[in-house]
Structure formats: structure tokens, C-alpha cells
Amino acid sequence: MNTRYSINPATYSHLNTDELRQTFLIEDMFQPDSIPLTYWESDRTIIGSAVPTKRPLQLTASEKEMAAKTFCERREVGVINLGGSGYILVDGTSYPMPRLDALYIGRGAEEIFFHSEDPAQPARFYLISYPAHTAYPTTPAPAADANRLILGSGQSANERILFQQIYEGGVQSCQLVMGHTMMQPGSVWNTMPGHTHQRRSEVYLYFDVPSVEAVFHMMGPAQETRHLLVHNEQAVMSPIWSMHAGCGTSNYGFVWAMGGENQRFDDMDGIPVNRLK
Fold first, then answer.
1. Which DSSP string do the residues of 217-274 spell out, in sequence order?
2. For a 10 Å CB count at each end of the chain, is N or C smaller?
3. Domain 2-275 carries which CATH code?
4. For the chain, domain boundaries
5. Given pLDDT bands bounded at 50, 70 and 90, which one contains residue 270?
């Protein structure tokens, strides 16, 4: 497990491109037969992935970062599958995971194993975890059952469908809010106008970005924006003081996940485009 520390806006303003990427971007997310994890100091977030090909992969705790016997001893986990069909075993119960389906794993789960149905087309599990103050049941969150929000328009090149999967009023969690958004053909701008979350940090994982394309992820305070050039299946960590929005060279998808003070989806501080610098 790698560790990333939080920084403040004053430090951010002095970072060069490489330093900005090393601080906020996770580049090598999906590695076959491995569960690489990043511990981000903001809201004690853990971000990771699992790509089982030769064998099932077990999610285990790190003594140094977690001081726990099992990963979910004091944590909850959200998982979404971005690859071929797979399934997750949680304490002996099997949860099918077709592409874009999610699973909420509650505090107290002891054994978690990731499986692929076909090793030649493995599942690509993306996971995010936050501390949990109580236990809620492990619950599937299929894309077909998600609450759908149709946002933006073709005229502003930001027509998109947002799928709420783990959210207030839906699958219950302690603080985790999670889902995914699909940009429609011809649309490339996400989350515009941008906003910040004083009460929550957020992580974006971009996917379905063609190998010859990229997404320019906008970040930073409204008066000093910067960008990260993001490729397929890379994750951006967004602290509470940073706006988050992006523009791709083609349409794409992204998984969004938040943890913090509350679960209200609309709890955000919008920033009009004409105020950005």
C-alpha cells in the first residue's frame, strides 16, 4: 500500500507538472493478479483495484496503515467492475458482478475474494474504502437499478448520464457515496460548471478512454486552476479545496466516489465558469 499525503492550496501553487501528478494522480491502477492500494490522507481514503486472472485475489489489511486483522474490521468498501464478468465472495456468499455493477461491502466483513468468470477476459474491479462507524449489510448495487440523472446538453458538449449506485436513499452506507457517469457521443465536458465539496473529498476514476485519447482533468482553487492529463483507468484524488471537472478528446466514462461529513449528492459549492482563472 502506497501513501499519499494531503497538501494545502499554498503548497499546490508551487508544484510543477511531475509533482502535481505524483500528488494527485494514480497512474498504475490495474495490475494482473495484484491488488495495488493507495492510502490517501484525506478522509483516510483507500483506493485500489483487483484484476484476477490466474487465481482469486483476497483483499487483506495492511498492519502499517490500518492496524487491523481484516480489511473491513473498521471500514466499508465500494466496488465497481469495469471489465469482464466476475464475482465477489464475501464471507462465503457469492455476488455476481457484470460490467458496471457495484457492490457495497459493510464493516465487519472478514473474507473478501475477487474472481473472474473468464481469465481471458478478466474482471477489472475498482474499489474505494472509507472508515465506517457502524455496520450496514453487504448489498449489490446493479447498474440496472441505479438512480439515473440525465444532465447537460449536446449544445454545450456535456450531455451525460449519471448512475447513482451507493447513495443516500439507495444502498445504505456510513459515508461512502459512489456511482458512475457516461458521457454521450459527441460530448466531452464533465461536471461543468465545476464545484468544490467543503464537506467531502472525492476521487475520479476515468475509464473507456481510447488508448489514443486523453482527458484533461481541471483542478485547483477557482482563481488558480491547473490540469492533469489523464489516460484510461487512472484516478484523480480531489481534496476539499479543489474544483473538479474535465474535458476529453472523445467521450468516456468515470467512476465518482466521495466520503466525508454527509451523503447529500447536491451538497456542493458551484463555481461559475466566468469566475475561473
1. EEEE-TTS-EEEEE-TTEEEEE-TT-EEEEEESS--EEEEEEEES---TT--EE--GG
2. C
3. 2.60.120.10
4. 2-275
5. confident
